[in-house]
Amino acid sequence: MKKNFLFTMSLALAMAMPLAAQDDLVIYGDETTGIVWQNFAGPTNVQEVANPSPDAVNATGKCISMLRPKETGDTDEIGWPWEGALSESFDVPNIAEYNSLTMLVKKPYPGKVCVELQNLTGGNSSMIWGHYTAVDGSWQKLTFPIINISSLGETGLTKILVEIHREVENDNDNFEDCIMYADEITLHKAMPAFGFNGEDLNAGGWLPFPGDELSKKALIVDNPDKAGVNETVSCLKIVREKNDEVFAGAINRNLKVHDLSPYKYFTMLVKKDIAGPVALELQSPGETQKQVLSADYTEVGKWQELRFDIPENVLAGEPLQIIILQAHAVDTKEDETFTEPIDIYVDELYLSDGTTSTGNVVVSDVVSARIVKSELYSVNGTRVAVWDGASYIPSDVNSGVYILRQTDELGKVHSKKIFK
Ligand SMILES: [Ca+2]
Ligand SMILES: [Ca+2]
After folding, report:
1. CA 348 to centroid of ligand 2, rounded, Å
2. Less packed terminus of the chain by CB within 10 Å, N or C?
């Protein structure tokens, strides 16, 4: 009797909490029931198994495993880059209320991961890319933007396809047959963060452009010069050949920045062996709006931070979904001095509202008139620092929230809340 009562109570509670009210919704994980996974495109042996190495990122008990063979078979369809796991067990009619999806991934080799969100009748989201970057086989949480879901219609999300290692490996001597794992698929109302750093913010993954997705003309590599301004581990490498188009480079179709208007510029690190402009072609969903931002690379051979100013009314107010990264926006077909392919390195792409920069807190962009005096106040109103001009906040100021009060050359006072 008691059991029945509890069951009825929990059912009533479950019915009283519509899914729409939840910010985070775990749709596959240890706590979910009735999710059945099957092989996709080959005998990949998809099954639910005990978590082989619980750690801080994934301490849960079970997960999905997939066998990824190395060799590509002709007739038996093994080892294709699109092999993976498919489940038709989901029921999320209100998928449009969610903005990002996270999935835990564990595999012995870094590489691209794809998810496709589908409905019963074949509508699908197109591929959404992520990139697993760990080299120690640890669990890593990948974030995918929820985009291109209008074709899912009324039924919403019912199927998910996970392509766990969308890479060609049959000519890679370092790759062996292996098991790869996925777990804890969660929908979030929060927007995915914007940024690319090669380590953990992969912004959905870059692909060579134009041309073959699997050509390896754009891929994540070890940073070749950690002695300069970029000490980070990894970056994107783009191979530029003489006969490539002016706009050649890499494309990222998996961005989700709803509103660019609060931002003043993009910053991005570039390193190449010849000087020349780099461009970011911004596009809205469906490519209805396009805008090219350019910056000049001059410090030949070294990492250089480029700044791409964002104009007023960028993309006519539409969201940003696609960036074509034009690594060397020069016509090399006609350039007699350009003969051999060059490697171009790109890293640390971020949006800035003009008040912060990587490392130091830059305050010089707060207003356009020249600042002659800066004062920093705690939120309690105590003045903690004063200095001439704008420049950087003194390094001995503790981290925290402050009010920055600046006086410009015209005597006008500007105040702004800042974080250090
Ligand atoms: Ca789990
Ligand atoms: Ca990096």
Report:
1. 6
2. N
CB 385 within 8 A of CB 377: no
Cα(62) to centroid(ligand 1), Å: 4
**How many beta carbons lie within 10 A of that of residue 388, not counting itself?**
9
Between 358 and 146, name the one with better pLDDT: 146
Amino acid, res. 56: A
* pLDDT at 366 exceeding the cut of 80: no
Ligand nearest to C-alpha 222: 2
Residue type, 89: S
3-state helix, strand, coil in the chain (%, to 5): 10, 40, 50
Residue 70 C-alpha to ligand 1 middle, in angstroms?
26
Among the listed residues 289, 294, 292, 283, the one whose alpha carbon sits nearest the alpha carbon of residue 316: 289
The CA distance from 53 to 138, in Å, is 8
Query: Ligand 2 centre and the CA of 126: distance in Å?
Result: 27
Domain positions in the chain are: 19-188, 207-352, 371-419
Q: How far is the CA of 347 from the centre of ligand 2 (A)?
A: 5
Four-way CATH pick for 19-188: 2.60.120.430, 3.10.20.740, 1.20.900.10, 3.40.50.300: 2.60.120.430
Whole-number Å distance, alpha carbon 55 to ligand 2 midpoint, is: 24
Q: What is the CATH number of domain 207-352?
A: 2.60.120.260
Instruction: Specify the pLDDT at position 40.
Output: 86
234 C-alpha to center of ligand 2: Å?
Answer: 4
Question: DSSP characters for 171-183?
Answer: T-TT---EEEEEE
Rounded Cα gap, residues 236 and 348, in angstroms: 9
CA of 128 to the centre of ligand 2 (A): 21
Q: Quick one: pLDDT at residue 121?
A: 86
Give pTM, 2 decimals: 0.78
Contact assessment for residue 328 and residue 292, using Cβ atoms and an 8 Å cutoff: no
- From residue 182, alpha-carbon distances to 107, 163, 405 in Å are 9, 10, 49
**Ligand 2 geometric centre to CA of 405 (Å):** 34
Q: Which residue do the tokens 């010089």 mark?
A: 364
Gyration radius (Cα) of the chain, Å: 25
Cα(59) to centroid(ligand 1), Å: 8
Residues 275-299: b if buried by 16+ CB within 10 A, e if exposed: ebbbbbbbbbbeeebebebebebee
